[in-house]
Design goal:
Keywords: Iron, Metal-binding, Oxidoreductase. With about 375 residues, the protein is α+β, with helices and mostly antiparallel strands. It contains nine helices and 16 strands. Helix content is about 25%, strand content about 20%. It is globular and about 55 Å long.
Length: about 375
């Protein structure tokens, strides 16, 4: 009988994790939550209380005890690096690109094709977004080069949402909702805009960065419910504190940086904060590095209504009324697609301070002053 041994992973160049900066930076105080205690008696309730302040005040936190090994994480970086290092005529095949005219963020986004802040300086973000591996998403762009790694990518993708579901359980407990209230609105088998992302920032000259206020990615909130960012050492990600200060998000060894997105902010009537963040030119000892990132972006199911939830806590706080579910529905697909169009379907990534974005009765301020 043939052996059931798994085939060896395809050999590709190894990604090398950059060292941490030696410069003294103004780091944000980020709560670290160890999920390894999640299934212990009373574990979920204890973790929810640990998380409450972080998601209410800053919207950013880190998780450890995730079940992902460093080898598994670094293999995803290997795959992302190998794809993003392909020639542009290969990775940038039009059949596999994002279609921002339709608000479709699945596929490849090229760097150096749009300008920034009305200058001649070019955008330096390059990425590929891979949809969930379900029949309903099989028509979405998934580059042939990546198909040879499909089993590894799919496993990582599915486990990412399983991990996010634990975080959603904690959010439900915080809001005094049934524990599965949010997780059942983000099921892997349901059609949604979820995606696993490989993304790299291609460094600019110091002179060009100065022309755009050292901006590598302009200040924004995330469009979906929850973002998972596997922690990396190149500084640059900053969050805006409630006091209006910009602080660097610190790396967490073997951890994942998480932040609340717009749709969870809407569901919680603003109790869970979708925090404004940006990426700036890294410090001098890292400014030359091609900053590679690994993400999972969780979006609500396409047909899920994202207006405020019937939370007893939110009612006691006066954030929602007894008729909170009576308003006109805004569906997950509708909000996310419109937001993607609003953000990306332009030739220039402009400064959006004070601008608002609205779908139905749901409104966010793109970047607060």
């Amino acid at each position: 009988m043939p052996s059931a041994v798994s085939p060896e992973p395809l050999a590709i160049p190894k990604w090398k994790r950059p060292g941490k900066t030696n410069e003294k930076l103004d780091w944000a105080d980020i709560k670290v939550i160890d999920l390894s205690t999640f299934d212990e008696p009373g574990g979920k309730q204890k973790l929810a209380e640990e998380l409450r302040d972080a998601v209410h005040k800053t919207g950013f936190f880190s998780i450890t005890g995730t079940g992902f090994t460093q080898e598994e994480v670094e293999r995803q970086y290997d795959i992302g690096q190998s794809y993003l290092n392909l020639p542009l005529e290969v990775k940038g095949d039009p059949k596999y690109r994002c279609d921002f005219t339709q608000g479709n963020y699945f596929g490849y986004r090229a760097a150096h094709e749009k300008t920034v802040m009305g200058t001649e300086v070019l955008d330096i973000v390059e990425s590929v977004n891979m949809p969930k591996f379900i029949p309903a998403e099989s028509h979405e762009p998934f580059h042939p080069y990546l198909r040879q790694f499909r089993s590894e990518i799919e496993d990582f993708s599915r486990r990412s949402l399983e991990l996010a579901s634990k975080v959603f359980t904690l959010f439900s407990i915080i809001l005094e909702l049934p524990e599965d209230y949010f997780s059942k609105r983000h099921l892997y088998e349901d059609k949604s805009e979820d995606h696993l992302r490989y993304m790299v920032y291609r460094p600019r000259s110091e002179e060009d960065d100065a022309k755009v206020q050292n901006t590598w990615s302009r200040a924004h909130t995330d469009f979906g419910s929850l973002t998972l960012l596997w922690s990396q050492n190149v500084a640059g990600l900053q969050l805006k504190t409630p006091a209006g200060e910009w602080k660097y998000v610190p790396p967490v060894d073997n951890g994942i940086i998480c932040n609340v997105g717009d749709t969870l902010d809407f569901w919680s009537a603003g109790y869970l904060k979708s925090t404004i963040h940006r990426v700036q030119r890294p410090p001098k000892d890292q400014a030359h590095i091609h900053r590679l990132g690994l993400f999972y972006f969780v979006r609500p199911g396409d047909e899920v209504d994202i207006k405020p939830a019937p939370s007893p806590l939110l009612r006691r706080l006066g954030l929602v009324g007894e008729d909170s579910e009576a308003g006109k529905p805004v569906r997950g697909l509708e909000y996310v697609r419109e937001r993607v169009k609003n953000y990306h379907n332009h030739t220039d990534y402009a400064d959006m301070k004070g601008k608002k974005f609205k779908v139905g009765n749901l409104e966010i301020e793109d970047e607060a002053d």
